[in-house]
Every structure is written in C-alpha cells, then in structure tokens.
Amino acid sequence: MSRIKLLNVVTPQGHAGDLSKGSQFSFSYSSADAGCEVSLVMPYDPTPAVSNVLHPIFDMNVPEGFLADQIKRRMAKHMQIDEMRLLSVIGGNQIGRLTYQNPVEASVPVKAQVGLQQILSADTSQGVFEFLVETYFESGISGVQPKVLVPDLDKLTGSRKTMLSSDLIVKSGADEYVHLAQNEFLCMEAARIAGMETPPFWLSGGGDLFVMERFDLNSTGRLGFEDMAVLLGLNKDPHDNYKYSQSYETLAAVINHVCAQGDPLRELERFFSSVCLSVMVRNGDAHLKNFGVIYTHPGARETVQLAPVFDVTTTTVYENYNPKSGRSLVDRTLAIKMNKVKTYPDRQQLMEFGRKHCGVEKPWVIIERIAEAMSEALVAHQARIDIELFSAMQAEWDGGRAMALHDSIGTGMKRKPIAKKPL
C-alpha cells in the first residue's frame, strides 16, 4: 500500500483544512471560520503552516506506546507505518475533536461489541481486554500502559451498533507495574472524594482493569482537547524528554492565558488541587501530557477550562530499571520542576506555589481536604486492593500527607517497593 500524502482534517464545526506530507509537513486551512480552527494555538492563516516535524496538535493524536506497537505489529508487513498512516488508521477514534480522513481510503464506523458491564465482569475482564485490543487497536491514545478506546454496547439500543466515537477508555496493567489498575482506581477515588472533577470510572470485579468514560464527549458531541505539550508548541522526541520539560509554574501561566476569557482563577485552583493530589499520593508522572484543557471550539474561548483529573497513580511503589547502572531504583522526584527543582515540595513550598502562581488564598484548605479524602479512600476500598499494594500505597500516602501537612515529618523513603509478579 502506498504512502499517504494527504489527509483531510475535519472538526464538528466543519472541514478545517488539509494536512500533507512531502519533504515537509504542511497544513493549509480551507476555512477562515474560527470554529473550524484545529487548535487554540494555531489560528487561521491563509499561508500554509510548513514544518519539518508534525505540528503539535496533530502530533498529539498520533498513537504511541502500547497502541502504536499493536498497529505496527499488524500492519507493518503490508504498508509503511509513519505519522500520516497512523493518523489515517485512527481517523476520528481518538481524544479531541479532530478527525483525519484519507480521501482515497474509506473509513469504517466504530462498531460496539462489548458493554461496560461485561468489561467489569469479574470472571471475564482479562479475556475481554485481549478481545478489545484485537478489535479496537485502531484507536489513538498515548501511553506505555496497555489501554484502548472502546464503544459501550450498553449505551446502544435496538439494532444500532455503530457509534460516532468510542466513549470508554479501558486500561490493563503492565508486567513491570503490578496491580496498576487498582493503583489508579484508588488515586482517582481520592480525587473524587476530595471534590475534584473526575470522569466516571470503575475497577473491574477482578481488579485487573481500570475503565473511565472519556471527558471530551458531551451530549452535543466531541469537545476539543489539547495537552500542555501542544499549548507550549512542543513536539515528541525519541526519548520522551519533552514531557518532562518546563515546570508547574509554566503550566499555571499557560492555564491563566488560555482560560482568560472564562474563569481563570477557578481553573488555576483546580490545577493547584491536581498538583497537590499528585504530590501527596506520590505521583511522579504528572507530566505535560497529563494536564490539558477542553473546550467547544477555538472560536468560543470562554468555554476553555482545565480537563478533569486523569492518569494519576502512586509511582513510588514501583522500581525502575536503569540500564546504565544495572540497578532498579525507586524514582522519588516530580515529573517536572517546581521552584526550579524536581524534589517533592514541603508544605510551605506547596502553599507558596498555590498563592503565588495559582492565586489560591487558602491553599491549606485544599491540602487538608485532599488528605482527608485520601484517608477515606483507603478505608473505603481496602477490600478491593491487593494486600501488598495497599500496604505500599498506604505507606507512601502517609509520607505524602505528612510532608504536606507538617513540614518536618519524613516521607517513608526507606520502604521497599512491591515485588514484580513471577514470570
């Protein structure tokens, strides 16, 4: 199959323009309507936007990690797999409002085959996940963790089995991260109990799948979504260093800017709450792609708001292998900098960040509310969490809450990480 040289880029508001690939990538708008613009940071320009690398808003939609590997494994024998091919494969089955149409190859509607209740079933969940990967591998969602976008059959009635968009994100664990679905569920429960905005989410009966509704869909259709890497104009690099650049102070400034026509103080307080949660549950992977904004379309700037909380886990219960040293160590640093360092902040530093960069008058109220929510989540869900994981997370959370509530108390850094499953 030949290389793809042109894709039509379509939004819910109409055809936006054409993305082409020759010696360079080029995007040309076909409409001056602000509602059809592809990004908050890529306004209409009659001159084509030419770049040696794929434009950040399109780059965000290119599958990576687990799903990219699945696509390449199935298709590389028959065609060249590059960014244009990957965008053509996913079409509109990805997070956000953009759809990529290949003018010479017709797309196939997404067909629902499994419902949420079957996915959550205790005796079928892992087998169902393998089926979902085989059926819906042509979806665009990033990350190393095995995950896939799935249409929920339970929401369809009568003979209608096709959907405009897959509405569930289904995640499994990874071999090196034991019980990751349970880990994320417990962290998200802490966020929900603390009053933070979260999409509806579930843990399967067997505890091996985490399922979440997409936050970029509403009753009228698909919303725009842009992560912080897009808003900062950053492209992927071979080692993913771009995700871990910048600082939380920079992200606060970006949120203040893009939400200026809405309620920036509200969105900054929500951002501060999210950062506090990651600090306190010891989520060392709160990087640029795990924060973003949603909106109706770029012509409605007053609708821009911070996306709900997603992708939060206690990373310090796992070891990471360093090939240079040949050792496995626990990474006890932030994903990006705060106050010019990646060291976890203490109470005073966290409150100073809230006051100075997020405009939060009483940051301690948020910190204390999250601490209480973490305690409630632990009590409420202990029976659903693996014993060893629960013990490890409780120790990490105790350290995170202690540091946030009382500056001088230690962080539990000597605790041994949970062991990997035997091969």
UniProtKB/TrEMBL annotation:
Residues 140-377 form the HipA-like C-terminal domain. Keywords: Kinase, Transferase. The keyword Transferase applies. The keyword Kinase applies. Residues 7-100 form the HipA N-terminal subdomain domain. One of its GO terms (molecular function) is kinase activity. Belongs to the HipA Ser/Thr kinase family. This is Phosphatidylinositol kinase. It comes from Pseudomonas libanensis. The lineage of its organism: Bacteria, Pseudomonadati, Pseudomonadota, Gammaproteobacteria, Pseudomonadales.
